Amino acid sequence: MHPALQGLVTIILGVGGCVAYFYLSNQILDKVLFPARGQNAGRNITRANMIRPWLFVLPALLALGLYLAYPVVETLRLSLTERVTMSDGSTTYNWVGVDNYAQMFNEPKFWEAMRNNIMWLFVVPAFSTAFGLLAAQLTDRIKWGNVAKSMIFMPMAISFVGAAVIFKLVYDMRPVTQDQIGVLNALYLTFGGTEPKAWLTIPVWNNFFLMAVLIWIQTGFAMVILSAALRGIPEGTIEAAIVDGANPFQLFFKIKVPQIQGTILVVWTTITIVVLKVFDIVFAMTNGQWETQVLANYMFDKLFRANDWGVGSASAMVIMLLVTPILIWNVRNARKEMK
Amino acid sequence: MDSIAGSKSSLTWAVNISVVLLVALWLFPTVGLLVSSFRTSDQIATSGWWKALFPSVQNLTLRADAPELQVREGDLYVIEGDLFEVGKDVEISVFGVSSRAIDAFKVGETGELVKGGDITVSVEGHYRMTNIEPFEGSRGQRIFVTAKTPPEFTLDNYHNVLFDPSNREGMAKAFFNTLTVTIPATIIPIVIAAFAAYALAWMEFPGRALLIAAIVGLLVVPLQLALIPLLKFHNEIGIGKGYLGAWMAHTGFGLPLAIYLLRNYMVGLPRDIIENAKVDGASDFQIFVKIILPLSFPALASFAIFQFLWTWNDLLVALVFLIDSTGETTVMTKQIVELLGTRGGNWEILATSAFVSIAVPLAVFFAMQKYLVRGLLAGSVK
User: Fold this and answer.
1) I need a surface site. Which of B102, B271, B282, B287 has the fewest CB within 10 A?
2) Packed helices B369-379 and B347-367: angle between N→C axes, nearest 10 degrees
3) Mean of the pLDDT values across residues A59-88?
4) Rounded to an integer, what distance in angstroms lies between the CA atom of residue B71 and that of residue B320?
5) Partner A contacted by B15 (CB < 8 A)
6) Do B372 and A156 touch (CB under 8 A)?
């Protein structure tokens, strides 16, 4: 069957199936199991209403359980086992305890990935938030601010892979005898450089050239959220500060920024999560060569190139561990808000 | 605001200029790729794209007509013709007939051919070769010119990448594959999530608060953890790698955000409407379909855009759950990564392919930016 047709059938089956499930299960509940008539009508209605919520959440629960909750447990289990192919072609999983972790901790590539990830964790959220805040503050004050905003926001729609191509062109290098076609080298030579550089192959610094791609993408996100927060600041505090003679910089750093601290923190953590999962940019631009490895790409390497599920799962657990503090913080905040 | 701030016009100027710079910095890389996709490979390789908008001085290697076209004029054998299309706005400064001396002669001077005879070239590219002996050989004389040519753009790259059926690296198939992945993977989670969000927002049941907390937690669980267990699961139930697996994976991964966004929105709907409907005897199912769903349109649109952008731009899920060894189901992101590996220097192909894949999300982005912003504001966990 043609994939497009298959897709159409899936939409119809998927959507139709969902709607049919919700409709029929409600009908069965009301008409067959607990009909709202006869001598138990009152009790039946109460019972039906106790069950109904579960009918509504059941498909979502199953999908969430299977696609997100179960994998966490299963990955933990796999990280403690070793996959062995038996002579008859079947695979078994032998319990090896923490051997996978021990093996991983002995690999320099893993520590390289950890080091780079930590650099990413500090640099990307810091710069995205700072640029976002700057853009939000500046664009709020000018007439064509909305146009400017949507230009800075635009990279959000571009895939990491697309952004990788865009920035590979920026970082392109030609021999010194030819015209440079990459902007960075062209600028570098104009402002006193003598030799064009292959930016992505210079260890340690190349990480920052990769980070620039993500900063470029995430700044728009930070700007949108922070701009809304800036507009939410009560006018009174600003007017009072102006009356007291605050200059625009004092106004911004001493009055506005402290009032949106909470939002800045939210933006920071959201970008942190994106950074922890960053894969496509590194995969497409350097594939971890020249000391640019990051955890997510290291894991992909282990799983699908080295075919080592044990160490691969162990590195996935490291990513999970790094996300966990944010996870707990988010859950606690959400619970506080509901009360 | 400016007036109460008492800000001087110089500050306003500074702000305007800073924003212009910021916007230029943010647009510059993308514009570079866009401009490059309309240039030929020669143009891209010889000059930066920012020069494409202005006339450029290039060294070109051209060929005169073949000796079989020579004519006799009195004692002389003559080959005459034009190096460029007539009427094109070129300006030749120097020329040569040997690759070792491409700037041997000035325009207007008479140059000597290596095998005997003379040549003249005019500023706009008209050349005339004369010799007392007949010209020999099967191919025309090579002429090297240094010329100032006007900016030139072409649609050939797009034709080549999208519509050339013999191009095995083309994007046409990958484009449709991406579309095939994206649409069901956007619609199905919305349906499932909408019902769940309604229950979590407006129905009382034990464990509701716990479920909401769990969903907030699942929002940040890294995709990476799911790869192996789910690939194993898909192999065990026999669907292996393919569209079905990719749709299911995208649905599962999209659900937490969908439920979270929709629930937050639905909770904010006025209680009166729902209670009045209940008093009038409407069932939960009817309330949901007839009242909640239409009212929740902005939130549904927000999530739809997120999910669309995310599935269209995704690489990891496609690599793991979709693309098998035959490569029949390849998507655009994967195709571009392959091109980066095999055609790293062919910027005309890379730039065009990348832009084909970027164009659709950009169109969606500009058309529905309002909903995207709204969704972002609602979706960032406060």
Assistant:
1) B271
2) 80
3) 86
4) 67
5) yes
6) yes
Give the three-state DSSP class for A114.
Answer: helix
Measured between CB atoms, which of B1, B183, B199 is closest to A57?
B199
Select the residue from A9, A129, A158 to test the B interface by mutation, using most B Cβ atoms within 10 A: A158
Q: Do B22 and B115 form a contact (C-beta atoms < 8 A)?
A: no
- Closest chain B C-alpha to A7 CA, distance in angstroms: 6
- Tell me the C-alpha to C-alpha distance, in Å, between residue A94 and each of A83, A91, A310, B122: 7, 10, 10, 81
pLDDT digits (tens, 9 = 90+) for A236-276: 888 888 888 888 888 888 888 888 888 898 889 888 888 88
CB contact under 8 A, A284 and B376: no
Domains of chain B, residue spans: 2-51, 56-149, 160-379
ipTM attached to this prediction: 0.86
Query: Are B313 and A162 within 8 A, CB to CB?
Result: yes
With beta carbons less than 8 A apart as the criterion, state whether B320 and A296 touch.
no
Distance CA A197, CA A173 (A): 6
Which pair of tokens denotes residue A26?
A: 């409600």
pLDDT tens digits for A292-330? 888 888 988 888 887 888 888 899 999 899 889 988 988
Q: Are A266 and B212 in contact (CB under 8 A)?
A: no
Q: What is the mean pLDDT of each run of 10 residues along chain B (382 residues)?
A: 54 86 89 85 78 77 82 85 78 83 82 82 84 82 82 80 75 84 88 89 85 88 87 85 86 90 87 86 83 88 90 89 81 86 79 88 88 78 46
- Domains of chain A, CATH where assigned: 3-79 (no CATH), 100-338 (1.10.3720.10)
Instruction: Residue count of chain A, please give it.
Output: 339
Any A CB within 8 A of B277 CB? no
- For A106, counting Cβ atoms within 10 Å of its Cβ (0-12 exposed, 13-18 middle, 19+ buried), the class is exposed
Rounded to whole angstroms, what are the CA distances from A154 to A182, B26, B364?
A: 22, 9, 11
Interface of B with A in 28-87 (CB under 8 A): 28-30, 32-33, 36, 44-50
- Chain A contact present for B101, CB below 8 A: no
- B333 interfaces chain A, CB cutoff of 8 Å: yes
Strands B126-131, B118-121: pairing kind? antiparallel
CB A68 to CB B221 under 8 A?
A: yes
- Tell me, what amino acid is at B123? V
Burial annotation B213-247 (CB, 10 A radius, 16+ → b, else e): bbbbbbbbbbbbbbbbbbbebbeeeeeebbbbbbb
Between strands B76-82 and B126-131, the pairing is: antiparallel
Instruction: Quickly name the fold that domain B160-379 has.
Output: MetI-like fold (1.10.3720)
